[in-house]
Amino acid sequence: MSGSSQVILFAVGHEIRQSTVHTKNFEVAVIGKRIQSLTVDVTRKLIYWTDSSLNTIMRAMIPENPRQLAHPQNLHVGGIVSPNGIAFDWVARLVSSSWRLFFNVVKELHYHY
Prior knowledge:
By secondary structure, the chain is mainly beta. 0% of the residues lie in helices and 49% in strands. The chain has a single domain (7-107), classed as TolB, C-terminal domain (Neuraminidase), CATH 2.120.10.30.
């Protein structure tokens, strides 16, 4: 994701794929287990996603080189059962995930990449 290139990110099964808006080709950005949903922190170039196989929230940096795989990081958020939705609040810098019909808010974890 260099410069001002526009990238489309989407999840398919166990992969997060990326494509530029000017091509029909896509590259695999992340390989996970069972990716349910994803959200992006555009400022920090981070992808967050829920993994229903691992019952957790994961994240990775968006690769600068579209042919390079990202390195997933497990955020080890406890108590998640069947996560299926996620959103990033760019004002409050919070990641929210829904599971068991209610919303929990996960404060931005200060892990260094």
